[in-house]
Specification:
521 residues, Porin, 42% strand, globular, disordered N terminus
Length: 521
């Protein structure tokens, strides 16, 4: 009884209703550590999405699941996806991360999702939409001369990653994780989807693709599961083609609202190095009006028209990843090195490069489903100081005359949530048990050092006593509690900001709260 009172009290205190503002994200975290413990097989080496995890609909954590069978016949299975709703509240400014289509502005925010799917051995149809709204109250932002004043703070290199989405209450319908997909046994899949795709092993900041923005409409073709090839190990590969959409707050030109986006992700888990997987990603985007038939295969780098140092109508990114798991001791180390602007990875690896490095460790296990875990991740998307040798545009902002929206989808970054020029450190300790979890984490973000070193300190009014690095420190406590068929979630975050908007000693203490509920059929 005392335990129940404590958990209910915490859920009440932590807010108006983390991972990624969905119970699917919370379940994925549990499965991550379950896989690290050797209790789960990986369903993907590098390409992660709802459809790649659909087979893991049931797992041993309080009997929870992604979805529950409603009708089972010889022709297939109709499942209900657990309905859920999440609320958040920001006291001072917009604050959110890896939360899909939702815009977590200042004030109250909500996202509600529901759906069902039909699956058999040959195809699946999933309708999994969501509806979200945001109070979007006013707060101080850095003034800009484009994006109607709402966009990224770089003047002249502004792109469609918004500080605030307009000045009114927001609401939107989004197709969420909806998907139409065909299968050839366990080998090949082809689908059209709006689901969020994450590439690579990162936990907080995936440089190439993440769930920080909503899913973009896309086709994909590739392996459904990692495939064993001779004695070399397991291989995975996936092509994808889609469209990034401009926000309503960037410009009024309807001709540049869409960007063609394409990519290829491949991974290899060598049989002679147990637990290791190596990956590579190539992706690019360009104004949709410049699309041509070659773009259908240009995800293969040799067919891309973009070359290092060239003036063209597209921008490309590459990444190399690794993930090395040691289930016998419950440990993994992973990393990602990425490069923007198609520079040479050997002759100029420092040019517009970015890095992610992380570790996770199961500190102690008790009964099944009961464990104490630790994770750390460092991410850096800042330029090196060699730009005087070869000028480099900031990450995701590479543009050209007439089209400067950059790498964005509906005003949010589909890559690392910290955005260009930033670096972050994330530490998490969580305790999982049969009735849920409780976790403590710390996140530090130094916002856009590229802007600070290239714009702020070159301002004629710059003085060391009036400007400083813009840094957020976030300490959070979160909990999940299973109460019968109900899943309850709460999170409370204390944020301490140094030099808000790079104004020296403009230090602010503010709060972020989340709470959510889902029903498991």
């Amino acid at each position: 009884m005392k335990r129940n009172i404590f958990l209910w009290g915490f859920l009440f205190i932590s807010g108006f209703l983390s991972a990624d503002m969905s119970f699917r994200g919370i379940y994925d975290d549990f499965l991550y550590y379950d896989e690290l413990a050797g209790n789960q097989d990986s369903t993907s080496l590098i390409y992660h999405s709802y459809s790649t995890d659909a087979a893991r609909s049931e797992f041993d954590w309080g009997g929870r699941s992604y979805a529950s069978p409603l009708v089972e016949t010889s022709l297939g299975t109709l499942r209900l996806i657990d309905p859920e709703t999440f609320f958040s509240y920001n006291t001072f400014k917009a604050w959110g991360r890896n939360d899909g289509a939702l815009w977590q502005g200042k004030g109250f925010n909500n996202v509600t999702s529901f759906g069902m799917d039909w699956m058999n051995d040959w195809y699946s149809i999933r309708l999994y939409p969501q509806f979200w709204w945001a109070q979007n109250s006013d707060f101080d932002i850095v003034s800009t001369n484009v994006s109607s004043g709402w966009g990224d703070w770089w003047s002249g290199r502004d792109y469609d990653r918004l500080q605030r989405q307009g000045d009114e209450f927001l609401y939107a319908f989004d197709w969420g994780q909806s998907d139409i997909r065909f299968y050839w046994q366990e080998y090949v899949t082809f689908g059209f989807s709006t689901e969020e795709v994450t590439l690579g092993p990162g936990r907080q900041n995936n440089i190439m693709l993440s769930n920080n923005a909503g899913g973009f409409p896309h086709f994909d073709l590739g392996t459904y599961r990692p495939q064993e090839i001779w004695k070399l190990g397991s291989f995975e590969g996936r092509f994808f083609w889609g469209w990034l959409e401009e926000s309503d707050y960037y410009d009024t030109n309807p001709d540049n609202d869409l960007a063609w986006f394409s990519g290829l992700a491949v991974a290899w888990a060598p049989s002679f190095v147990p637990g290791l997987s190596l990956g590579a990603v190539h992706q690019y985007y360009k104004p949709n009006q410049f699309w041509n038939a070659l773009d259908l295969i240009a995800a293969v780098p040799i067919f891309s028209s973009n070359k290092p140092g060239s003036e063209d109508d597209e921008d490309g990114m590459i990444a190399l990843t690794f993930d090395w798991k040691f289930p016998s001791v419950g440990f993994t180390v992973y990393g990602e090195w990425a490069n923007n602007d198609y520079t040479h990875p050997i002759t100029s690896p420092e040019h517009t490069s970015a890095q992610v490095l992380g570790v996770s460790q199961i500190l102690k296990e008790w009964n099944p489903g009961q464990r104490l875990v630790f994770s750390f991740e460092h991410a850096n998307l800042a330029q090196t100081r060699t730009t005087n040798v070869r000028p480099a545009g900031p990450w995701y902002r590479h543009g050209w005359a007439g089209w400067t929206q950059g790498y964005a989808h509906k005003g949010q970054s589909p890559g690392a949530w910290i955005g260009p020029g930033s670096n972050s450190q994330w530490v998490n300790v969580s305790y999982y048990h049969n009735l849920g979890k409780i976790g403590l984490e710390y996140t530090r973000v130094c916002w856009d050092s590229d802007y600070f070193y290239n714009v702020v300190i070159n301002d004629p009014d710059y003085k060391r006593s009036t400007f400083g690095q813009f840094i957020d420190n976030d300490v959070s406590l979160d909990a999940v509690y299973f109460l019968g068929d109900w899943n309850l979630y709460g999170k409370a975050s204390l944020l301490y900001t140094l030099n808000e908007n790079w104004v020296w000693r403009e230090n602010v203490l503010h709060f972020h709260f989340e709470t959510g509920v889902a029903y498991s059929f």
